[in-house]
Amino acid sequence: MYDFAIVGAGAYGCATAYHLAKAGSSVVVIDAGKIASGASGGFGKRGIRTNMRDPRELDLVRQAHAKWPTLSDELDADTGFERIGGVCLVEDVPSGLSAGVASAKRRAVVQSDFGIPTEYWDQTVLRDKLPGVAESIDGALYSPFDGVASQEATTVGYARAAQRHGAVFVEDVEVEALVTEASGAISGVLTTSGDRIDASRGVLLTNNVGAARLVQTVTGYELPLWPVLPQVLLVKSEHSPSIPYLTNHQSKVISLKVLKDSTIMLSGGWVGTWDNDERSGGRPVPSRIEGNLDLLRKTFPSLGELTLLSADTSRLESSSLDQVPFVDCIPGARNAYVATGWSGHGWAILPIVAQRLAAWLLTGRKPVEFEQFAIARLAGSAEAARMLA
Questions:
Q1: By C-alpha distance, which of 181, 174, 214, 219 is closest to 200?
Q2: Do 339 and 268 reside in the same domain of the chain?
Q3: Is residue 19 domain-resident?
Q4: What pLDDT was estimated at residue 207?
Q5: Of 9, 87, 257, 278, which is most buried, counting CB atoms within 10 Å of its CB?
Q6: Residue 164 belongs to what H/E stretch?
Q7: Distance between terminal CA atoms of the chain?
Q8: How many structural domains are present in the chain?
Q9: Of 314, 340, 357, which residue constitutes the final position of a domain?
């Protein structure tokens, strides 16, 4: 019998387990694969980004910015964190009502008002900071507190720190169902091998899209999220990249960071395709690889010829309908919680959200910041409301 059971040994499962175990609770973390074997693993580093984020998350970003620099010391593990600053490129072309220079300038004000220093760079400043950028780029947002960190090293660091505080990790075991008592309380989980793991104080689902299936078995409601296979490319350029910032674009599907060996890690929203079904994994799509590379050529023509080193679409992620996560108790069930649907950008807010999530489980007091991540925000129909009552 444990106090808490967490399903999913990704970043959020491991980080929340660490905070619970550090507080003296007994915790078990169960994963169908290995620690960091899903979206929280893989090569390179992931961006800790402010620019173009949903405003509902900005206060959490501000708080997380204060925690990232000291996280390695706290976990006694190298997270690979670097505060390199983040740049969001802007083109003043007709590409939607939320794009363009005017929009970017207002976003800089809003982000700064949330306590996240942000500047708008005009063309003169931008070309001084990024001389190789295309002439078509009209300006940029600059957030100096943004940076990068290794998702795999950080996730494993949280797991090892949790283990030092007594947390137990069960790998290569799939959870099939939640144990529901007549009172409506969730008292544990059942695995596909028929084993029961009991948890007296709560069960937390952080297992990405797998959480949706388990929520549905309890509520009858299907969370509006779906699985995606984000495309990540490693690219060498003919000319050494002089791009010192975490860089994305306001209205185009491109995001990049330069690794220590001058390799460019390129992503931004392109995805792979499924082989047969969601359980069989997926593969890169040549036309999407070329689309991503073509955007890089047009954005930074100074790079010269590009050479693709690798293309990876193996790390399953979940995307929600409004691109904002679900962090909530499971409606109709006691002692059951879910944190999923991160839509590829839950990474930056990990240190603060996991800490607040653990505090909620321990005290029963829901953080006010989580109200905007409630499941019911997207349950508009009467039938959905009935299921979630």
A1: 181
A2: no
A3: yes
A4: 95
A5: 9
A6: helix 151-164
A7: 30
A8: 2
A9: 314
d(CA 39, CA 113): 32
Residue 126 backbone dihedrals phi, psi, to 5 degrees: -60, -45
| Residue whose entry in the numeric block shows the structure tokens 């083109």 | 91
Q: How many residues are present in the chain?
A: 389
Q: What is the pLDDT of residues 146-179, one digit of tens each?
A: 999 999 999 999 999 999 999 999 999 999 999 9
Give the residues across from 198 on adjacent strands: 188
Task: Report residue 369: phi and psi, to 5°.
Answer: -65, -20
Instruction: Evaluate if pTM is beyond 0.90.
Output: yes
State the Cα–Cα distance between residues 353 and 355, nearest whole angstrom: 5
Q: Could you list the residue range(s) of the whole structural domain that residue 367 is in?
A: 2-43+151-225+320-388
| 47-82 pLDDT, tens digit each | 999 999 999 999 999 999 999 999 999 999 999 999
Cβ neighbours of 191 (radius 10 Å)? 16
Same domain, 285 and 140: yes
Q: Which residues make beta-bridge pairs with 177?
A: 190
What is the C-alpha to C-alpha distance for residues 167 and 282, in angstroms, rounded to an integer? 33
